[in-house]
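debug: dumping io for the single-chain case to check the tokenizer round-trip. Nothing else runs in this session.
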Amino acid sequence: MVEVAQHPNITLYTYSELERLEGFIGNFRAVIRKKARSIDETACTGCGACIQKCPTKKIPSEFNAQLGMRTAIYVPFPQAVPNKPVIDREHCVYFKTGRCKLCERVCPAKAIRYDQEDMLIEVHVGAVVAATGYQVKGTDFFPEYGYGRYKDVITGLQFERLASASGPTQGVIRRPSDGAIPQTVVFVACAGSRDPAKGLNYCSKICCMYTAKHAMLYRHKVHEGRAYVFYMDIRAGGKMYEEFVRRAIEEDQVNYIRGRVSRIYERNRKLIVKGVDTLLNSRPVEIEADLVVLATAMVPQPDAEQLAQRMKVSYDENGFLSEAHPKLRPVEMNTAGIFVAGACQAPKDIPEAVAQASGAASKVIALFSKEELSREPLVAVVNRCAPPEYSTCIGCFLCESACPYQAIEREEIRTRDGKLIKTVAKVNQGVCQGCGTCVALCRSKSIDLQGFTNEQVFAELIAV
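debug: decoded output
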């Protein structure tokens, strides 16, 4: 990130989001909303005095997956670029009551700006790469696991923060409820994934590997502890992946149990995990655990569908962005000039996400290296005719609302003195992909695909 921020040809907009995207390949106009930090980034030195003095210190930290606390003025994560704080207006005492301003008084650079507002920045670009990442399902998604009521039932992401040296416990594995070191930990793989009953039919792809890693980390940190993994199938489909899982089982003595967990409940300050072992004729299994880690499903960002609609690209029933072709065009989208990379397209691990990002970057470079762009020859066209009719289009613009690529524009036909005669549809041939939806829906039959007009088809039939 530091290299990105320092690169002369890269403009980095942090704490920003896409407001809208217009245009077409080679000529996009993006409007970016740069949200107000309530900090003057040019004046702030990142000294951290405001963070130390802030009186509001009990806000759950997003970076630590709600396990740690942060202040109302904070740096989102330790390696943030730029390393400048932002004020959380929802929890800040000043924005709630109009009093406090302690951070303003202690700031040596006088960089606090309470009246700062969001900025709209317009940039013109030739291509767009969508790489918005993913989220994981929370524990409150599972009724059989307590709907999030049990503090010691956590997600894999939360366990990752517990095991990290920069986490809320400085790398010591402790139970969130009382801070004790757990002696028995149960890991539940496929929590939500491959579960049609919960509406998530797909495999999250990364759970098998990070569950094995978490179990190994636990065994390395708590040598006398016992680790159990409930799994459906082990899908270790990468280089050295199977060997990694075997190492967890054989060298670190992690107990793998093939079966689903039916219920988790609390008894005598212990978590009772009830399941079955399908390799032992579905024998019931009951384990008293101190900590339960759910490998919850990978899901798109909460606003993924809204972003796709702003970008005018397609997405699937799960909210992941849809590529143009799963095998032949895996990093391109149906809208020309827009590419996709990472887990916003489908669940994937780090090597696959890096490979896809490199492919998307290569596609953009290849696009920009050409002096002229080629387009699909079979595109729609609106019929034009001689005055006084000019066009058979009646201007209902049903095609405009139906076009999946937003290729229909409105064209005004005027006289030489500027008087408006009529407004008709016009196809942007740089955006049109030749799907034919507008042709089928046109009430006045004013749109044809080039090369497939009625006259051309009739001529072919007569010639045969």
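debug: round-trip ok. The first helix runs from residue 2 to 6.
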